[in-house]
Amino acid sequence: MSKKGRFGIHGGQYIPETLMNAVIELEETYKKYKDDPEFVKELDELLKTYAGRPSLLYYAARMTKDLGGAKIYIKREDLNHTGSHKINNALGQILLAKRMGKTRVIAETGAGQHGVATATAAAFMGMECEIFMGKKDTDRQRLNVYRMELLGAKVHSVTSGTQTLKDAVNETMREWTKRIDDTHYVLGSVMGPHPFPTIVRDFQSVISKEARQQILAAEGRLPDVVMACVGGGSNAMGMFYNFINDKDVRLIGCEAAGRGIETGQHAATLTTGTEGIFHGMKSYFCQDKYGQIAPVYSISAGLDYPGIGPEHAYLHDIGRAEYVPVTDDEAVDAFEYLSQVEGIIPAIESAHAVAHAIKIAPKMKKDEIMIICLSGRGDKDVAAIARYRGIDIHD
Amino acid sequence: MTKIQDAFKNKKAFIAFITAGDPDLETTEKIIISMVQNGVDLIELGIPFSDPIAEGPVIEQASMRSLANGTTTDKIFDMVKRVREKVHIPMAFMTYANLLFVYGKEKFFAKCREVDINAIIIPDIPFEEKDELLAYANKENVDMVSLIAPTSMQRVGMIAKEAQGFIYLVSSLGVTGVRSEIKTDLDSIVKVIRQNSNIPIGIGFGIATPEQAQKAAETADAAIVGSAIVKLIAQYGKGAPGPVGEYVKKMKDAVMRAAK
């Protein structure tokens, strides 16, 4: 039997029979259009004229000087329309949905970035849109909930399970099994059943396609280190993809270590997780010895997920990418650091990558180069960080 | 012929699902015995999973109640072993791929044989991924039940040809749960299954009333009921064995009317 969508042993299609036709239809549609000149042109045009691509590769001179080590470049996905990398995938998938004749899209969201991107693309392309978001996240990201509603989406607050991203995925999958004919599930990360990990990676790979050209233009050579934060792993996969064959480029994914690995309150899947089958894929998951999925924690709603995309699991297995844990405290410090040193407020998710850069850049040589993927902007997090610092602001 | 076929010795069968450990394993044991005394032909025992993506709220909440009480796969095996001293009808486990995978596939199915579990139903293992478990299950005489959904008309023949035990025909789109009306054209799906397979067909998802059960048994070979029973258990708690038994008797009688 053909084993579809595998990355080493990871990936696959572990979903209810009711959804099989939908993923087969998606796979066939994607195969048909991914190299279709019309489709590629339409998406490129949208990315350019609507999303604002290419995004800048910014040389962080002050941060470089302050840390005293590697030359630091920042890939500014925060400057995209809607404020994060999520728009790259949302536009691509909604174009595919249109090709499939769908009139309605549904999506899960953690921090709300993917929900906002999907709601935006749906509004722009005239599609009905419903977003599922854990209740804990609708509470801590209220501004994004209102933003999605403003864009015409209906937002469902998910009260099952841990009321975070994993439960939002559960509920979106359930919704999809109820209504398939006119509905496409715009999965937001490089996870879930085949073909989603491949489709989302391809749509996000524009990040490294640009970054590779930009760094060659700026420095005449490839970087030594490329870094990104990892929840499900979409900005990291997009940032890594075009560097995978450049064997001398170190790829580093930064996972959420929450209150610290030793406390058990974290979402560091590759640091502590074990192999499993969940959300349509074989990969690594935070779980107990019976395979019950663990209630994970992170200050960042976007990284608060107990699994990781199957291609990351594979890159981890073969040692091509490294995955490191970064705590809440470190991420909040980095959030403030980048704001003050570079005048750039990063998303708390992206701040996890910035935090690790702060740790390793000083140990690198001055002629070495590092690129950090700044997956999103931090406006949505300002109130939550203020509260973390004991200042009572509500958005 | 596997033990699962015993369930269909009277031509038509009533299949019941309950979540193991809801409200606790002692009560589950009593509910099983009560259902057997009232004529159930096959029991699907759910091993609760933290994230049951194919379930509606009724069974999801039962899973949460069970897990909150400390139910584990090992404790369920122990309970089945005890209940098997009194219960001899075919029994199946219904659960999610991760629980088997993490427990260890070989160990899981060896234990199934040991406690006489005869089939396994895994909603998140479709036809394309069944190699993940099939050989391990069959090695220990456990049938792997295939699900067929109303979205899979082109897939029905392919799935039916390789089906084991019985075929679980999902009545309608969506997750498990009670429905007032079932609109799917089940007759034409059953026809294609019959052309490709001799094994019995059970219809599930949304069946709650005796009328629906009779109709399912007329269309196919068995009615499968889960959420309606789980709702009774949620309502009566430790007192559920009696009311569940009465309900099973009513449903079994309806199914037997289809045999005439």
UniProtKB/TrEMBL annotation, chain A:
<comment type="pathway">
    <text>Amino-acid biosynthesis; L-tryptophan biosynthesis; L-tryptophan from chorismate: step 5/5.</text>
</comment>
<dbReference type="Pfam" id="PF00291">
    <property type="entry name" value="PALP"/>
</dbReference>
<feature type="modified residue" description="N6-(pyridoxal phosphate)lysine">
    <location>
        <position position="86"/>
    </location>
</feature>
<dbReference type="InterPro" id="IPR036052">
    <property type="entry name" value="TrpB-like_PALP_sf"/>
</dbReference>
<keyword id="KW-0057">Aromatic amino acid biosynthesis</keyword>
<dbReference type="GO" id="GO:0005737">
    <property type="term" value="C:cytoplasm"/>
</dbReference>
<keyword id="KW-0822">Tryptophan biosynthesis</keyword>
<dbReference type="InterPro" id="IPR006653">
    <property type="entry name" value="Trp_synth_b_CS"/>
</dbReference>
<dbReference type="InterPro" id="IPR023026">
    <property type="entry name" value="Trp_synth_beta/beta-like"/>
</dbReference>
<keyword id="KW-0456">Lyase</keyword>
<protein>
    <recommendedName>
        <fullName>Tryptophan synthase beta chain</fullName>
        <ecNumber>4.2.1.20</ecNumber>
    </recommendedName>
</protein>
<dbReference type="GO" id="GO:0004834">
    <property type="term" value="F:tryptophan synthase activity"/>
</dbReference>
<keyword id="KW-0028">Amino-acid biosynthesis</keyword>
<feature type="domain" description="Tryptophan synthase beta chain-like PALP">
    <location>
        <begin position="51"/>
        <end position="375"/>
    </location>
</feature>
<comment type="similarity">
    <text>Belongs to the TrpB family.</text>
</comment>
<dbReference type="InterPro" id="IPR006654">
    <property type="entry name" value="Trp_synth_beta"/>
</dbReference>
<comment type="function">
    <text>The beta subunit is responsible for the synthesis of L-tryptophan from indole and L-serine.</text>
</comment>
<keyword id="KW-0663">Pyridoxal phosphate</keyword>
<dbReference type="InterPro" id="IPR001926">
    <property type="entry name" value="TrpB-like_PALP"/>
</dbReference>
<comment type="subunit">
    <text>Tetramer of two alpha and two beta chains.</text>
</comment>
TrEMBL record, chain B:
<dbReference type="GO" id="GO:0004834">
    <property type="term" value="F:tryptophan synthase activity"/>
</dbReference>
<feature type="active site" description="Proton acceptor">
    <location>
        <position position="55"/>
    </location>
</feature>
<comment type="pathway">
    <text>Amino-acid biosynthesis; L-tryptophan biosynthesis; L-tryptophan from chorismate: step 5/5.</text>
</comment>
<comment type="function">
    <text>The alpha subunit is responsible for the aldol cleavage of indoleglycerol phosphate to indole and glyceraldehyde 3-phosphate.</text>
</comment>
<feature type="active site" description="Proton acceptor">
    <location>
        <position position="44"/>
    </location>
</feature>
<keyword id="KW-0822">Tryptophan biosynthesis</keyword>
<keyword id="KW-0057">Aromatic amino acid biosynthesis</keyword>
<dbReference type="InterPro" id="IPR013785">
    <property type="entry name" value="Aldolase_TIM"/>
</dbReference>
<keyword id="KW-0028">Amino-acid biosynthesis</keyword>
<keyword id="KW-0456">Lyase</keyword>
<comment type="subunit">
    <text>Tetramer of two alpha and two beta chains.</text>
</comment>
<dbReference type="GO" id="GO:0005829">
    <property type="term" value="C:cytosol"/>
</dbReference>
<comment type="similarity">
    <text>Belongs to the TrpA family.</text>
</comment>
<dbReference type="InterPro" id="IPR002028">
    <property type="entry name" value="Trp_synthase_suA"/>
</dbReference>
<protein>
    <recommendedName>
        <fullName>Tryptophan synthase alpha chain</fullName>
        <ecNumber>4.2.1.20</ecNumber>
    </recommendedName>
</protein>
<dbReference type="InterPro" id="IPR018204">
    <property type="entry name" value="Trp_synthase_alpha_AS"/>
</dbReference>
<dbReference type="Pfam" id="PF00290">
    <property type="entry name" value="Trp_syntA"/>
</dbReference>
<dbReference type="InterPro" id="IPR011060">
    <property type="entry name" value="RibuloseP-bd_barrel"/>
</dbReference>
